[in-house]
Structure formats: structure tokens, C-alpha cells
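Re: the multi-chain job from yesterday

Posting the exact lines I submitted so nobody has to dig through the queue logs.
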Amino acid sequence: MNRKAKMLYRRLLQAVPIMILATFVVFSLMQLLPGDIAVTLAGENASEERIAEIRELYGLNQPFLVQYGSWLWHAIQGDLGSSLLTGEAVAETVSRTFPTTLFVVVYAIVLSVLIGVPLGILAASRPGSPKDSFIMSVASLGVAVPNFWLGMILVLLLSLTLNLFPATGFVSPTEDFAGAIWYATLPALALSTGGIAEVARQLRGSLVEIHHSQHVRTLHAKGLSPAKILWKHGLKNVSVNLLTVVSLLFTKILAATVVVEAVFAIPGMGSAVVNAVLEGDFPLVQGAVLAMVVTVIVVNLTTDMLYTVLDPRID
Amino acid sequence: MSSNTLTLAPGHEPVYLRILGWMRRDLRGTASLLVLLAMVAAAVLAPWIAPYAPADQDLANTLAPPSAEHWLGTDDLGRDVFSRLVHGASMSIYAAFLAVGIGLLVGVPFGLLAGFLGGWVDEVISRCIDALLSFPAIVLAVAVTGAMGIGLTNAMIAVGLVFAPQLARLVRARTLVVRRELYVDAARCFGASTGRILVRHVLPNAIQPVIVQATLLLAVALLAEASLSFLGLGIQPPDVSWGAMLARAYLYMEIAPEQMYAPGLMIMITALAFNALGESLRVALDPTMKSR
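And the result, C-alpha cells for all chains:
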């Protein structure tokens, strides 16, 4: 087995304990609930028999680790229990709402890259110039702005005043892709400011570093144009770093959807989690958080592996 | 005889001169520090600065535009927006420090232990850190708040628990370097206990990047407080924070859009100041980044 394959294999193995621990944390969340979980699960004014029945049904009279094992076993098979409020299977709710959230997240990431990359290149072209300072200042704003507030401002400006985009709602991309993009643009824009800033900063940093390196100086001396150096040597070197930034962005933007979905009334998993928490619908909270965490772990693992495959320096 | 003037070696000048020197060199850091001090002053002096109590109602004047009587107008219940903004400062700042404080209290000891003891302790703690870092921050905070009970303090404890693994990882990495230093060996030779070595020798030398990160996390905590309070999971009435003000402003966005400007701007300026201060501290504390 060559070194690369060995590294991939090791990385895959490392993900196993992380996955187990993460699921354990999700399961343990339930134990944080004050009082008897069976009473909570049974709802208000439940009879003693009903509580005992719930205890039996959820295996709550068994040792903690046994409960975890059986919960995990069911979860792997796609059984995440059912909502206390609607009775809908949690797995069903997750598969209905998660694609909506993911669509907005991916859209926001695409915007972050599409806007952040040119800004980073512009800033790096003259480090220390007014242009550079201006772009980096805007990037600082992008990190500090509360994205749900930006969402509100965008709604006020672009939908209520100028009528360019719908203020709230969502259209499924499988039914009407153009409509979906139209509806998701403002939420994605609100979510992407931090991402734009991070991509621009990271790219500027690595490009400036490469500009100062020996091999780029040599290329300059040999008379290669700055544009050619940027495209053929600069971006090629930093594109792999960008991959890491994007995978970190995924987690951050996914988290932020919880608030931004509320602003735009998007029926995604973020809204589902918040409603479930407010209503005390704990199985749904658990299932949704589990789905998000597993997705994050898989995305991180995939980027790590891509990184290993793509970067010729790793061998 | 020009060499008569006395020059002090760097590091030996009086503290106030060093601070003045820093302020002159780092205008951005100074400005952000002043902004934050002003915020803290406003928070402490809120009862004297604010013309009204945060819950005082002027029911004849709801959702009023700015006027001489109400500088930033009134909200849907006729409460003075400027007064609520000033009172909200204390809650928002308290929340940010609470979350970061808890993050430090939980994260730093685990990071120290993992880095210093190594072996299986490190292995276990590091894997737990990895697992916890896979949780989207606000989502975990939302879930933990839901489990522990809705309210500002619980919400910020939850946010602090989200910060803990980040800080632990940072401390661990520094500790790995510091524990190989000669002075640690020396202390051990003198018979110092592990606890004493950790607290007296490793911690002070591993803490610099943590101070920087903690300052940056104050901004994240402030934004998290705003988000959680906006969702109704954080601060509960009659208390007020900037996030809670935005939640009400959202409801009346179409009739009184000016309601949402001031709280959002306050959050952004404060977060910006925390970030700028963190960057300045990074430069000031890092001996390898003298020039900037």
C-alpha cells in the first residue's frame, strides 16, 4: 500500500471514534433534561401507567450505556423515534427539512467563494494599498455583522422597498430551480458575509505569502506576466487551502441557518430544531442535531481525503 | 554632550509609558479599547444615562419615530428605544463574558491535562474535542439550552460549553511545546507537584494565544447571545438585550423599520471592537510579529 492510501485509511479510522463520541453527546443531551425523562416524554397530566409504559417503550429502566446502544442501533437503521407533538417519524421530518437547509447552505458557500475569491485576489495584488485596506476592512465587517440582522436589512431594502426578491418563503429546487434560487438568494447572501470575509482573508494571506516566495520571484525575473503567475502558479498553490476553508464554512453556515431560517420563514431543519426546542419536542431535537453532526463529520472527512489526494506535496 | 539624555532599555520603561507607546503605535487597537470601555461605562451607568427605565411605557406613543422626547423613538409597547439600548448593553456584555468565562473554565484545564500528561489521557480528551468540534456551534447551544431550560444564563452556559473544546485544543497545542522547556524540567527536579508545575509554570507560558482567542470569542458570544435571544431562547422579558430588541423589531418591520437599526449597529460595533482588540493583542503578545 502506498503512503497516500495509508493516510486515507488512517483518516477514515480516526473518524470512527469521533462519530461514536458525537452520537454519544447527542444521546446524552436527553439526560440533561431536568427531572424524569419518562414524565417529560409522556407529556402533561399523563397517568402513572402511561409513564411506566413510556419508560418500558424507550427502555428508560435500563442502564445508560444499554440505552445508548439501543438508541444508536435504531438510529443506524433510520429509526430516530417520533415527534412528541405531531407523531411524525423524526427521520421523516429530517428528510423533509434537511434538503431545504442544505440547499441554502450550499448556495451561501457558492456565493462566499464567488465573491470572496475575486476580493482576495484584488487585495493581494497590492498588499498595503488603500484598495487592500478597504477590502480587508469590509471583510472585518462581514465577520462582525449579525447575519440575521443583515437578513432583515436585506428584506427591508431589496424586497419591501425595491421589490426585487421575495421577503420570505422557499421553493423546492426540484420543482422550480430558478424559483428556488430566486427565493434563496437573500437568505444565502445574509449567511455568506462571514464566508466571503474568510475566503478573501485566507486567499489574500496565502497569495501574499506566495508572492514573496523564491519561485515566484524567479518567474518574475524570467519575464512572466503577473496575471500568468497568478493563474498558473498562485491560485494552483492556494486552491487546496481553499478546500479547508470551505469545509470549515460548511459547519459555520449550517449553524447560522438556525437563525436565518427564522427570519426568512424557511421551512428547513434550523426552524424545525428551534420550534422543537421551544415546544419541548426532544426526540426531534435529538434527531435533527444528529443529522447535522453526522453530515459535518462526513463533509470534514471528505475534504480531508480530497486534500490528501489533490495535494501533490503529500506523498 | 548629547548622550546625557537617559534612555531606558525596552521593557524597563514605566508601565504608563509603555501603554502610551502602544496606543500611539496601534490606533485601531486603542480605538476598539475605547469603544469597549465606553460600552462598559454605559452598561454600568445605565440607570443614570438612560432617560427612562427599560420597561417604562408611553402608551400614547407607540412605534414613534425619533423625537426630542424619545431620541431613538419608541417600540411597539411605547418603551424608549434609547433607554432600552443602554440597559441592553449590560445584558449583552454580561452574556458575552459569561460564555467566554465558562469556555475558559472548562476548556483550559482539559487542554492543560491533555497536553501535559499525554498518553491515553491526551488521546481521550483530544478525541472528545474533535467530536465536540463537529457540532455546529449555535445548533448545539440551542439544543443544550432546550435541555437545561430557556433563559439567558443557561443559553450562555451552553455557548460556553461550545467554546470549551476550541480553547482546550489551543491550550493543549501550547502545552505540548511548553512542557519540554528547561524550566519545567527544573521545577520537576526541585520536586514540584504536577499541579504546581501546571499552574505556576505551564499555564502562564501557554496562556498568550488563549487570551487572544478569548477576546475574539467575546465577539462570537455576543453574536450568539443576539441569535439565541432573537429566537426567544435567551433573555426573557422584562429583561432586555440587543438581540431581544431585534426580535421585537422584526415583528414590526413593515410598519416601523427604523426600530431595527440601532440594536443591530450596537451588536456589530461591539463585535467589531472585540475582533479588532483580539487582533491587536495577537500582534502585541506575539514576539515574532514585532513589525506591523
